[in-house]
């Protein structure tokens, strides 16, 4: 059974940094694509960043140049390094992974950026 477990969220001041981690219960090689999404109160869930098994990355315009997505195949973990955080980055961040059958989601981790 595939499980995704996020960690690394918390409270940070504007301009600060956080690194989110998403550990998988299976080999990361089964996933064609992994990514991070976020959902702020009263808003729809939105894409933050994705990374393919080949290492190709994609970012939302709002985070380009500030966030970096990566994956460590040996540790079966993907990361989201978030720098220069802004109050508008406040949201629950969800890990996502897609294999040939379906998409999987983590339980989410709260990121709060204070002004």
Question: How would you describe what is shown here?
Answer:
The chain is mainly beta. It contains no helices and eleven strands. It has strands at residues 4-7, 10-13, 18-24, 33-39, 46-52, 57-59, 67-72, 77-82, 91-98, 103-105, 109-114. Strands 2, 4, 5, 6, 9, 10 and 11 form a seven-stranded mixed sheet that branches.
Mean pLDDT: 96
* Largest sheet report: 7 strands, mixed
Distance between the termini: 40 Å
| Portion in beta strands | over 45%
Low confidence ranges: none
Taking all Cα atoms into account, the compactness measure Rg is: 13 Å
Order of helix and strand elements from N to C terminus: EEEEEEEEEEE
Set out the fold topology.
Blueprint: E1 4-7, E2 10-13, E3 18-24, E4 33-39, E5 46-52, E6 57-59, E7 67-72, E8 77-82, E9 91-98, E10 103-105, E11 109-114
Parallel strand pairs: 2-11
Antiparallel strand pairs: 1-3, 3-8, 4-5, 4-9, 5-6, 7-8, 9-10, 9-11
Summary of the model, kept short:
The protein is 0% helix and 53% strand. It is mostly beta strands and 115 residues long.
Looking at this protein, list some descriptive labels.
single chain; 115 residues; mainly beta; 7-stranded mixed β-sheet; 4-stranded antiparallel β-sheet; 0% helix; globular
């Amino acid at each position: 059974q595939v499980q995704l477990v996020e960690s690394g969220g918390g409270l940070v001041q504007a301009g600060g940094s956080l690194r989110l981690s998403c550990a998988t219960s299976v080999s990361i090689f089964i996933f064609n694509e992994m990514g991070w999404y976020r959902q702020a109160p009263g808003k729809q869930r939105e894409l933050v960043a994705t990374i393919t098994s080949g290492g190709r990355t994609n970012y939302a315009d709002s985070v380009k140049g500030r966030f970096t997505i990566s994956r460590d195949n040996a540790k079966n973990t993907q990361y989201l390094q978030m720098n220069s955080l802004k109050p508008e980055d406040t949201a629950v961040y969800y890990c996502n992974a897609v294999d040939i059958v379906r998409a999987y989601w983590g339980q989410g981790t709260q990121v709060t950026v204070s002004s």
